[in-house]
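Lay summary. Proteins are chains of building blocks that fold into shapes, and those shapes determine what they do. In this project we predict the shape from the chain. Here is one chain we studied, written as its sequence of building blocks.
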Amino acid sequence: MSGLAIGQRAGNRVNMTNPASYSSVDSLSFIFDMGMSLQNGIFKSGNNRINAYNTSLDYINAAFRIAPKLGVSFGFVPYSSIGYNYTESNSEYDPTTGYTNTSTVTYYGDGGIHELYIGAGWEPVKGLSIGANIAYLWGNYYHTLTQSLSANNNSSSSNSNTLNRQYNADISTYKADFGLQYNIAAGKNNQITLGAIFGLGHNTDDQATLLNYSTNSDSIQYTAAKAFDLPYSFGAGFSWTHKERFMIGADVHHERWANCKLPEIKTTTDNSGYNQMTYQATTGAYLNRTKYILGAEFHPDRYGNRYAQRIQYKIGASYSTPYVKVNGINGPSEVNVSAGVGLPIINGINNRSVVNVSVQWTRVMPSVSSMITENYLKLNIGVTFNERWFMKWKIN
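And here is the predicted shape, written in a compact code that computers can read:
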């Protein structure tokens, strides 16, 4: 459902977005959830177009109840990922020298941050639940920029200079998120759930390094201290469920990226006209981001005798405002549409587990024509194992 979660409360699935939902886990259940995706990305810039395919593990988590009205969850999810490799070239003829000057720039990036979390959700009074997730984040990134300048004519060529820059950082820090949910019974057949979340922002205390060298100079390493921040975030959502068959919900999630720092190269000129380069953490590279989500689910009859009655049908859409600036210009916004089904696993020993299959289309829309336009078509596959682990057996 395009990430709809803040107001979602179901005891048969893991909802790590709002940890207050853990209190709804059935007392007899152990839920193990995992998912992966297969993605085709289409990138366009001017008349250039390229396809990229990749497969990723999206999450592994579990949830169970440890006491009345108290549930816990733990798991592993990727927090971010980096992967690109592309080259651009520009040539210009200089009539004064008779040479064609060519600039070729290669960009490469790899890495990502992982998240390992544990959380709990508690219902202290009927209808009101609170929860928290505490996570450990760790990972690294590696970016390189290689720029070569060459000049040639019909009879000769010469390489004038090659510039190389390597950006590196190792990141490890904590992450804390809090949630709240309130259930309202609206008559005999309707249930309304209101939800809210809050994420604690802070500096990670990690440093970033830049290694700068070229053909005509020695290598110089720069270090930026306290180079990264996690943003404060908050959100609210609701869901309305009718007869346990039809559900509709909406979320709004806001992230305060604008005050977060990022390591950047700064060039200053002293009184003698000498340019000095520094590498330091500064603000201004990010924008505050807001994401709007709308989703719906239809379940013909979760207790029906026929298989088709127990299939879950889901659909969702979202829109996100930009959160980065590119050369001082607001970055791309994002539109997402998804649809899928939950297929129950029914056999002699299990009738509560589900295979979730969905198709998702995402379009990353640049604010100016010079930016890259991205389109993604993704197939998501998830399996929720819902086992009766805590049943007390009686033998006559």
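What the prediction tells us: The chain has one domain: 19-388.
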